[in-house]
Amino acid sequence: MCLLDAVIDWSAAAISCRAVSHTDPANPLRADGRLGAAIGIEYAAQAMAVHGALLADAAGASDADNGPRHGYLTSLRGVTLHVARLDDLSGELSVYAECIAGDGQFILYRFSLGHAGRCLVEGRATVVLNAEAMISAARS
How far is CA 86 from the centre of its chain? Predict the structure, then answer.
């Protein structure tokens, strides 16, 4: 399921995307005919995943032996929902994620979801990379 429509801009530090899937009545994340604002976290998580893939591709980090690195959203902090729902907004959503710290095993992102210059959802997320490898190493 891809909620994002386009990458607008990206750098080693951040990514900006746009989405209109919040207006789709068939959006798979709708419940009881509505799309709650907390779903904005999934939009941001997808932007973080695309950012990671773009960085890996630029660095040639995905190789045949190890495959692509998988990230897992493990923690959310300081999340603020400024609206109750997303589906009642017409036009595009802007999705922004900025890497504010990272070390190859963990990445801390600041994210926001906006509409027409208004912040709808914001917060911070921690992504753990290659969690399976970390678990295997801890068990050894």
Answer: 16
